[in-house]
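INFO worker-7 received task bundle
INFO bundle size: 2
INFO processing item 0
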Amino acid sequence: MGRPADPDRRDRTLARATDYVLAHGLAGLSLRPLAAALDTSPRMLLYDFGSKQELVAAVLAEARRRGALRLAGHQPPRTGSAQERLRDIWAWISADERAPFVRLFFEVHADGLVHPEAYPDQGQAITDWFGTLGATFRDVSTGPDDVVTPTLVMAVIRGLLFDLTTTGDRERTDHALDRFAELLGRA
């Protein structure tokens, strides 16, 4: 008879595997180097998670959970000008401590373009912010059912995040965000 499952060990392994993926990404992820970094074996990873795909799914779910906790700790302001609210969101989401989550977000979405079956909830990650952004920018929206304003705000933020992550040019991306904030304020 096999060893009984140890959920505490699995949880510890998942936490460390998530830290590893946030630091190193998913591209080229192999069980052998991951297991070595976690002081375990590929066989134990498979024992705990069933397959590499299930391990990756668990890591992505844990990364989303961690990101959601961070987001819950920062609610965008609903007072002040639209420009101030947008700058607050940008400062929070583009902060250095969120860079690993941003890199993983882009990596998953890029892989999802080629392998959409591997990420069935990818569209939800795009639209998850619509309620928050719609409420945050209600004063510049076209009405209570406006999805265009949150789409535009999220597209600009996502584009600037991709630019910042790729180039590291904080000054230019901050200025571009400021220009968009001015345009949003005129709406």
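INFO item 0 finished
INFO processing item 1
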Amino acid sequence: MKLFSTPTVLFLLLFSTISTSQNAVKDSIMLKKIYTAALTEGKSYEWLDYLSNEIGSRLSGSIEAETAVKYTEAQLNELGLDKVWLQPVMVPRWTRGFKEYAYIETLTGEKTITEICALGGSVPTPNLGLKAEVVEVHGIEELASLGEEKLAGKIVFFNRPMDASLINTFEAYGGCVDQRYSGAAEAGKYGAVGVIVRSMNLRLDDLPHAGAMSYGDTPVNMRIPAAAISTNGAEYLSSLLKLQPNLMFYFKQNCKTYDDVLSHNVIGEITGSTNPNEFMIVGGHLDSWDLADGSHDDGAGCVQSMEVLRLFKKIGYKPKHSIRVVLFMNEENGLRGGKKYAEEVKRTGEKHLFALESDAGGFTPRGFSFQTNEANFKKVQSWQALFKPYLIHYFEKGHGGADIGPLEGNIDVLAGLRPDSQRYFDHHHAANDIFEHVNKRELELGAASMASLVYLFDMYGTK
């Protein structure tokens, strides 16, 4: 065992303190460069404008989705990255068909048209539509208590709202999204003929919100149609049912599922200067639902991720590790892109250290959530002072992201950008998720925050 004299120990401590202080100054200067470049010479808003207004909605398997693949590949090539390529992935193809139609019919025959949309993956109604009495429930667990006697031949109306008392709106979403995803599969077990689900939205409006649903292992011939109803429609239907429990609900939808089709993840890379075989990735999902152009979900995350690599090129930063941007395909109704990327990482044995995802909208960034060990989390916490001038304060353990989630177990850190979430579910999967609802400066701040975190992990590595 080597012993050090007291003067030697004091010198080492002093040297360490000076070195840490010098690093903090250097890092502070670098973050300032990143934020300045993003806010004064950013490209993310311009890219999003094209994705949203020239290409539009990008449902997996659609022509628009493939157009977006070609467009983003071309933009990454223009950045002069070391590598740009397309990673093949088979994705589901589901189409909505003609706009859905629904009405509530009272016992006296009065009809009130209400706004609905088919849930992604749903089967269609019969050609002439579906009309039946409605049974309101507030969760899947209520189905068993009602049983086949009260549910057979009925339309089940799932009406559990998002919990408005929760500050974290993603927590509120998670508390009721099971009725959208599994409601049809579960209601069908009791002989229900259709499902109507309250939209996942804290605001009362007339916009139905789409989203994925699953029939699980339900045989194809036993699957029942499922649709979302707007929050205003859900409130009205619930109120009317209290007065007329035997009223009728009619809806018609024309959706169809086809065979899987070929699509791609879009990947670009800056090769690391000292650790080229160690990878850090940043990404979002390129697909969107078909009711709008998907500007917040997740066009914003895609262009912010592209901007990270552009900012490094712009300010002349040469990363130590190889930095990739990955634009995943099919997050919304299958997660095929994220799973495919993780499969290839495992197959090739590539060493991935860090992954950052943006899939919570283009609103004002508040910070990040991290899936990692305590040592890496303490490292992150030591960087908080660097982000304080940019009002980034949220550094918590939590979910990284859906598309990077399949990398868990083969990576040191999974992280997610966390913007202010209060307005996100006003737009999520709805017809108002459009370009005009994205603020340019908020979008650019998010991109700069992401680039700053990637820079710090690139500089100091993971544990």
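INFO item 1 finished
INFO post-check item 1: DSSP finds 13 helices and 16 strands in the chain.
INFO post-check item 1: Residues 34-94+259-460 form a domain with the Aminopeptidase fold (CATH 3.40.630.10).
INFO worker-7 idle
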